[in-house]
Amino acid sequence: MRLELVKRPQRSMLFSALSPFIAFVLTAAAGAIMFALLGYNPVKALGTYISPLTEVWQLHELAIKAAPLILIAVGLSVCYRANIWNIGAEGQFIIGGVVGSIVPVLYPTYESWLLLPLMMVMGMIGGAAYASIPALLKVRFNTNEILTSLMLVYIAENVLDWLVRGPWRDPNGYNFPQTAQFNDYAILPAIASSSGRAHIGFIFALVAAVLMWFLMKRMLKGFEVRVMGASPRAGRFAGFSHGKMVFFAFMVSGALTGLAGISEVSGTINQLQPVISPGYGFTAIIVAFLGRLNPLGIVAAGLVLALTYLGGEAVQTALGLSDKVARVFQGMLLFFVLGCDTLIHYRIRLIGAKAEPAAAQPAARLEEAH
Amino acid sequence: MEILVAILLTVATAATPLLIAAIGELVVERSGVLNLGVEGMIIMGAVSGFIAGYVTGSPWLGLLAAIVVGALFSLLFGFMVLTLATNQVATGLSLTLLGLGLSGMIGAKFVGVPGPKLSNLYIPGLTDLPVVGRLVFGQDPVVYLSIALTFGVGWFLFRTRTGLTLRAIGDSHGSAHALGISVVGYRYLAVMFGGACSGLAGGYLSLVYTPQWTENMSAGRGWIALALVVFASWRPWRVLGGAYIFGAVWIGQLHAQAFGIPVPGQVLAAAPYAATILVLVLISRNKRLTMMNTPASLGQPFVPDR
Amino acid sequence: MVDDTRSIPHADLLEVRGLTKVFGQLKACDRIDLTIAKGEIHALLGENGAGKSTLVKMLFGSLEPAAGEIRWKGKPVRIASPGEARRLGIGMVFQHFSLFEALTAAENIALSLDRDTPIGDIAQRARQVSAAYGLPLDPGALVGDLSVGERQRIEIIRCLLQEPELIILDEPTSVLTPQEADKLFETLERLRGEGKSILYISHRLEEVKRMCDRATVLRHGKVVGHCDPRGETAASLARMMVGTEVLQVVRQAPEGGATREPVLEIRGLTRRPAGPFSVPLRGISLTVRAGEVIGVAGVAGNGQGEFFEAVSGEALQDDAGMVRIRGKDVGRTGISARRLLGAAFVPEERLGHGAVPTMTLSDNLLLSRYRTDAKAFLAAAGVVRSGVVAAASKRVVEAMDVRKSAENPEAAALSGGNLQKFIIGRELDRQPALMIVNQPTWGVDAGAAARIRQALIDLARAGSAVLVISQDLDELFEISDAIAVMHDGTMSPPLPRAEATYEKVGLLMGGAEPGHFEHAHAGAA
Domain limits of chain A? Predict the structure, then answer.
């Protein structure tokens, strides 16, 4: 018995649309099996996992978690569409948070309505600048961007650690490794403060997704990104520059990620700490793929992945499981999404141990094969 | 002098997991497959090796379990990229993310528990020799194994017919398929060898290097191993050299912190990662040479026509 | 056309009955019958896409037949893999070589021999075969550094070392100079003399007439006839292959001669090798004037691709004066600026260079024209007017008679000929002052090829300058007003059509110095 791929003459529109949902169902099934193996009632555990959806304040938390995921993933989708592998968003997120915090940390008494826009812009510049390092190394020295962008994550983590334990530590903070709390002018306003904590970072995410969707779908720049990703040689024939595209993709992605970083610091944490991200930069990679690298799909995918965080916390509290359950769900989801994407371009055929003539063999879809 | 010997001994233990993981990945990449899941396979090897060692009390059984789990975990990647022809970069990344999560969940109850440790070699007379005795004859057995593995892989790739076939597949899977070579079959074996090596590297971390389990204890070593393969231009003996250089950087920053050198600890902690970037820049600068050395079908999906 | 299958006195080596292969909706091979006798050279004729390659891949075990029977020496066999084909005694020389560039010639040979052959012995055996058949070869050379002809010799020696009884050659002369092809025919005739059978795939009718004992003709996946090619004319064979009369390309001599305006001037074009195995360009000079078609002949891999990249501006030159378009130095400006001066380009590779395989036709129209037609195709702030682009795409499809299955399909869904018509039409639609085409009809069926060639001639006669790079000498002789030859990164001065002969051009392709024809000819005779 073996599987064989048969190329479709045209990409399947049906599976283009269905694939994320199939992946979602398969993940839930695999999760149920996992819970059963761990000795929990799978139905109850899955129920606990999605329980955050039933309460309003939890929906606010969902928006808080989804905002950075969407912002980062929208940027990453530009990179991945261009076949440029920025996997260092976690580092760009941190540096965006750090650079955006320069003014409120160094001038804690500066109170002005200009402060927030300034912080946001500085966060974007910080993220873009940090993302331009792997871009520069790739264009100038032909260095693999996967490895350099990832290495820069570890360096960014150490930069933040040094700042909050060293020069930026709150002098009145009982030696805790953190900066002073930001003043009110440095904190992003809430969307509806009566019902929960969600801040306008979520609005940023939605606006970014719509703008990016328009850019990718309707504008020449988006066309350029898609051409460079699908076929760099055809892109060069068209007169597009690969080097400029590398910078464009990294810097757009870095700016959006930096915005996510400073929004998180300003809106959710209100100060800098040694750790400001529960792995948003990596989870956003999954969001990007689950959203089919389409900015609007990414909004939906960001909400789903935000739920895995909240669900992870819920099963941790209710069942005493490790909060790493969230990471396991996220990893499985990405695996299933990638696997289901194969169905868009191929039909999957199950071949018996004794190979029959191909024409006599009816094609079996993956679902049937399972 | 004692201190220097002690430092040099630890350099070998820091280099060994990098060496083993990188040698495994080298074989995978020579077959034309890019597996970015090294970090995930290492951490899975670390957690399963530790648990098996803890339960059985035998570090050897622990290492064996690490190897088996590493190979099985890589099979997941292999099925995706070889049978379903998924994107290798994305699939490798997801293997890493899944490994980091799964290991944290499985190992939650074992954090901080003291486990068994593999003891160092002791040959009466030889190991007692001053200075060289402990360096040459007093390491743990896996250090010797890793060096033997390096030479074994070098011999396999460049002196055997099967190794030639593997390199040919990495150069052009289309030509190999036309000649009737089972591209996918060879690649499955290569991927599993890589997984076994990464698993062993992880088991070494949790059973020898710091004989205990902590979350994320691989600390980016999988990524450094990937960089080492590029640095070594896909040649085993250069991986050996590179791994020991990185082992030295890793140990150097730890000792510099201990000696109270007036530099923030974070700068030192970031040093191995910065060094990796630097090394990659230096080695990749010559574009033509890099193209020449890189297996030509690396990372390209392959679907045989029937 | 005579069905003389039964009248052949030899014992049949290979017998194929009803062999069928289906890809999706397409029957690539539909109940093929074929018999090959011992000691004959059997031609397999057919257009691009007629099913020749699919058929031989099934015979060599690389593809699995859907139905039908293969008999080898009278016994039914199932050839499940190339290894099994080799064990039976079937050898294959591929059209797209199955070689490994990063390995040596000896290692390449070793990979197709039985496992127990020690690597050390192979070089020795390769040398023996190479000497015996007059096929010079250095077993230690890296394949990536070798010319196309040398690579083919490796394929042939590799095949001969397996001591096959049936040798399949897929379009072997398409990569050779006429003189190299003659050498190959000598080798094949020797093999026939030794009692070996040869299945010879070609669409070159003259060589089939000259050398083959029998022919089987395929069209649209079906056998349309068996015949003795020596009893046929090239025209009758072509009719069998194509099914209808092929449009004859009409070419009148251009008027005005050297007084016409030079549109493309290349002066001392030099380029360092870009990749590990690419060819450096050395001091190329060439002028293409309005109203003429200049052909560039040459064996594949002599720098044509590098030349195209340099002239198109995909690769920039060291000195701006190396390439001039309509009197402007463009050596330091990119492809878009050169297009704005009126130049249009069609590269050799359709999928992945001239077009993005996964994008629609209208997107692929935008690909090469977003700058030249920016006023029409783009609104403010770089928003694409997709309706206008789609209309232009439709115009091209109609003008060039592009056959497609959907309204706006992905480029990869079109057949090679139809996609090429679209890509050429996309540029013609602009009425370019200069058109540079690399391999205009490679892998294109005869009808589409004739249409493309006529379109290029008509463009020139309407006052544009046309430069055609091709490995197909017949094509160049059909459409060019003068033919230059590339060899090892250099280019000969163009030979006017009246002076050019196959022999002269062939010698230049092999590297002879221009002006030494008489000498070289005497040496060859």
Answer: 61-296
C415 with C495, same domain?
no
Mean pLDDT of chain A: 90
**What token pair was written down for B279?**
């090394």
Chain C residues in contact with B166 by the CB 8 A cut-off are none
Residue type, C461: R
Q: How confident is the model at residue B1 (pLDDT cuts 50, 70, 90)?
A: low
Size of interface B-C (CB pairs under 8 A): 62
Q: Do C62 and B292 touch (CB under 8 A)?
A: no
Contact C381 A219 (CB under 8 A): yes
Structure tokens at B235: 């040649």
What 8-state DSSP symbol labels residue A321? -
Q: Which domain holds residue B210?
A: 2-293
Pair C171, C83 in one domain: yes
Query: Amino acid letter at A204?
Result: F
C38 and C125 fall within a common domain: yes
Q: Are C37 and C195 in contact (CB under 8 A)?
A: no
Dig out the tokens for B2 from the structure. Answer: 């004692």
For C380-395, what is the mean pLDDT? 94
> Could you tell me if A144 and B291 are in contact, meaning their C-beta atoms sit under 8 angstroms apart?
no
Mutate to test the interface with B, among A80, A158, A365 (most CBs of B within 10 A): A158
Give the SS3 label for residue C67: strand
pLDDT, tens only, C428-462: 999 999 999 999 998 788 888 888 999 999 999 99
C230-242 per-residue burial string, b: 16 or more CB within 10 A, e: under 16: eebeeeebbebbb
Cβ contacts (< 8 Å) between B167 and chain C: which residues?
100, 102-103
In a domain, B301, yes or no: no
Per-residue pLDDT tens over the stretch A268-309: 999 999 999 999 999 999 999 999 999 999 999 999 999 988
Neighbours of chain C (3+ CB pairs under 8 A): A, B
The reported pLDDT for the residue numbered A239 is 96
CB-closest option in C61, C94, C101 to B171: C101
| pTM attached to this predicted model | 0.89
pLDDT score at C258: 64
Residue of C66, C367, C381 lying closest to A238 (CB–CB): C367
Rounded to the nearest integer, the mean pLDDT of chain C is 88
For chain C, say whether A359 makes contact (Cβ under 8 Å): yes
Residues C400 and C467 in one domain: no
User: Do residues C54 and C151 share a domain?
Assistant: yes
Mean pLDDT of A82-97: 97
Beta bridge partners of A107: none
Which of C392, C407, C431 is the C-terminal boundary of a domain? C431
Domain membership of residue C524 as a residue range: 249-342+433-525
Q: What ipTM did this prediction achieve? A: 0.89
Residue C176 pLDDT more than 70? yes
Calpha distance B207→B20 (Å, rounded):
15
Q: Which of B18, B74, B97 to mutate to test the interface with A (most CBs of A within 10 A)?
A: B97
> Token pair for residue B134?
């402990």
With b for 16 or more beta-carbon neighbours within 10 A and e for fewer, the A316-352 pattern comes to: beebebbbbbbbbbbbbbbbbbbbbbbbbbbbbbbee
* Count of structural domains within chain C: 3
- Given C189, C213, C242, which residue is the final one in a domain? C242
What is the Cα–Cα distance from A1 to A4, expressed in whole angstroms?
A: 10
In this structure, how many other beta carbons lie within 10 angstroms of the beta carbon of residue B148?
Answer: 10
Q: What is the CATH number of the domain that holds B145?
A: 1.10.3470
Contact assessment for residue C350 and residue C371, using Cβ atoms and an 8 Å cutoff: no
In chain B, the number of structural domains is 1
Owner of token pair 């306003």 = A189
**Interface contact C235, partner B, CB < 8 A:** no
- Over range C129-158, report the average pLDDT: 85
Q: To the nearest whole angstrom, how far is the Cα of C65 from the nearest Cα of chain A?
A: 7
Report if residue B304 sits inside a domain: no
Q: What angle do CA A220, A222, A226 make, to 5 degrees?
A: 115
